[in-house]
Amino acid sequence: MRGVRQHVNPFGLAYLEPRARAARYLARSTQPDRVEVELGCADADFSFGLAAAQPGWQVVGLDIREPVIERNSRRAERVGLANLEFAYCNLSTDLDRVFAANCVDRFHLLFPDPWIKPRHRKRRVLTQTLCGVLASQLRPGGELHVATDVFELALEMLAELEDPAAAALGFRNLTGPWRFAQEGPVPLASRREVITRRRGQRVWRMRYVVHKTALVTGTRRRSPDPAT
Ligand SMILES: C[S@@+](CC[C@H](N)C(=O)[O-])C[C@H]1O[C@@H](n2cnc3c(N)ncnc32)[C@H](O)[C@@H]1O
């Protein structure tokens, strides 16, 4: 994307103050049957494809880079996709402000920035803190779909999701413990996946379903807690 910074530091001062807003579709009088969210969407080819293929689903693309969000929003309006919205969110600090508990059917974390340098590793997004927020916002039986082309990062994310702490949140590997998935949940690829495959490189994919006990399962709420 020309003229837009490739990377921003999620722990930079400008991004630490929580300022993400509740997803706009939550304010509508009628709610969609299904909500799919792309975390770190960049150009959002995946989200555009999903919204076009499934007009009855609500698709939300989130990214920390505001110029990317503005550009995607203009494009969604231009192509007339009313079931697609984009919003600013720093996944490291304020996803809890965007959705209420039990209202997302599937999160897609596709090709997150690998932050290879040792001093940058703390910027990687999939932490136990994020897992806790995702588990809370997924409806019972909802899914987390993760993909990357960086094997080291794939192993780290797999370890995070196989951790007993993630199991306690309800995450179960759809493919079996410690296994990568062969196929994604929908026949669509993000821009980064298309590039990876064109280069003949491997995609490492994980799919986790979240199980919730009756105790942690609330009803679908229409907006996040105003106190957040
Ligand atoms: C490599 S791109 C992947 C884009 C797209 N999902 C794909 O597969 O083509 C990673 C995206 O994650 C975004 N990102 C990185 N850290 C983030 C954070 N803490 N919160 C939200 N977005 C973040 C970046 O701005 C970038 O757009």
- Mind describing the biggest β-sheet? 7 strands, mixed
Task: Supply the helix-strand structural class.
Answer: alpha/beta
The CATH fourth-level homologous superfamily: Vaccinia Virus protein VP39
Instruction: Show unreliable segments.
Output: 218-222
Number of helical runs? 7
- Looking at the structure, the CATH topology is Rossmann fold
Strand order across the largest sheet? 3-2-1-4-5-7-6
What keyword list fits this structure?
single chain; binds S-adenosylmethionine; 7 helices; Rossmann fold; globular; 7 strands; seven-stranded mixed β-sheet; 228 residues
Q: In words, what does this structure look like?
A:
The chain is 28% helix and 20% strand. The protein has helices spanning 13-16, 45-53, 66-79, 128-137, 151-162, 164-169, 191-198; strands spanning 34-39, 57-63, 84-88, 104-110, 138-148, 171-173, 204-210. The protein is α/β, with parallel strands linked by helices. A seven-stranded mixed β-sheet has the order 3-2-1-4-5-7-6, with helices on both faces. The protein has one domain: Rossmann fold (3-Layer(aba) Sandwich), CATH 3.40.50.150.
